[in-house]
């Protein structure tokens, strides 16, 4: 059985989560004429709910193509090879829960390419577990090979040619697999709270230095 069968099967609650996150938080950051690139697009939870001129998803999982909207350009392959993306063509790069699965060498390779792919003023947007708060569960996922806290992720991105413009150490809870209901109202309320109870995922935004 594959990783998507065991650790990450499709869960309709993620559709509710990402639809609300896109509408309430990410969409206002993305102009209507933008090109959005998602690395590790998976089930398309993010790209399918973003509205912009061009959407591109990259993932090594072949199953991705069965979940992406028809308007999304899909590239099945390793995210360390972005040769198919023209230089200075992307406005918004997004990756959720991806780089803890890659070695630091591969992460640096991706960042090196993204510096060329982003337009001037384009942004890199990373959402992933914060080891500072999720250390108990971090290695429950057997594919995690790298560890990042909000401080180390900021430092790593900075050392690889980016300037961090925003860091939210507690942006979201770690998973939708809890007793709490996943509802648009509660998600929007959570985003507005000054203190994020159970927040174990961080959000880091950056531009090319």
Which labels suit this protein?
209 residues; alpha/beta; seven-stranded mixed sheet; globular
Entry summary:
This protein is 27% helix and 27% strand. It has helices spanning 3-6, 12-26, 104-117, 131-134, 150-159, 184-192; strands at 35-39, 54-59, 73-76, 90-96, 118-129, 162-173, 199-208. The mean pLDDT is 94.
Summarize the helix and strand pattern as letters.
Answer: HHEEEEHEHHEHE
Helical content (DSSP H or I, runs of 4+): 25-40%
**Largest sheet, spatial ordering of strands:** 3-2-1-4-5-7-6
Cα separation of the termini: 42 Å
Overall number of strands: 7
What share of residues are in beta strands?
A: 25-35%
The count of helical stretches stands at 6
How does the overall form come out from the CA principal axes? globular
State Rg: 16 Å
> How is the biggest beta sheet arranged?
7 strands, mixed
Unreliable residue stretches: none
Report the structural category.
alpha/beta
The average pLDDT score comes to: 94
Could you please describe the fold and organization of this structure?
The chain is α/β, with parallel strands linked by helices and 209 residues long. Helices cover 27% and strands 27% of the residues. It is built from six helices and seven strands; from the N terminus they run ααββββαβααβαβ. It has a seven-stranded mixed beta sheet. The longest helix is centred in the N-terminal third of the chain and has 15 residues. It is globular. 35% of the residues are buried.
């Amino acid at each position: 059985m594959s990783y998507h069968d065991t650790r990450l099967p499709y869960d309709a609650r993620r559709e509710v989560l990402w639809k609300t996150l896109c509408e309430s938080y990410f969409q206002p950051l993305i102009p209507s004429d933008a090109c959005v690139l998602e690395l590790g697009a998976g089930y398309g939870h993010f790209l399918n709910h973003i509205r912009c001129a061009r959407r591109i998803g990259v993932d090594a999982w072949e199953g991705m193509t069965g979940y992406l909207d028809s308007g999304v350009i899909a590239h099945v392959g390793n995210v360390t090879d972005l040769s198919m993306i023209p230089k200075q063509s992307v406005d918004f790069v997004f990756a959720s829960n991806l780089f803890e699965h890659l070695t630091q060498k591969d992460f640096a390779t991706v960042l090196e390419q993204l510096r060329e792919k982003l337009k001037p003023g384009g942004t890199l947007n990373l959402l992933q577990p914060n080891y500072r708060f999720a250390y108990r569960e971090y290695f429950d996922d057997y594919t995690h090979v790298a560890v990042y806290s909000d401080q180390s992720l900021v430092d790593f991105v900075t050392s690889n040619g980016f300037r961090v413009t925003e860091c939210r150490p507690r942006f979201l809870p770690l998973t939708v697999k809890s007793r709490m209901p996943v509802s648009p109202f509660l998600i929007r309320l959570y985003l507005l709270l000054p203190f994020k109870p159970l927040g174990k995922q961080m959000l880091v935004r950056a531009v090319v230095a």
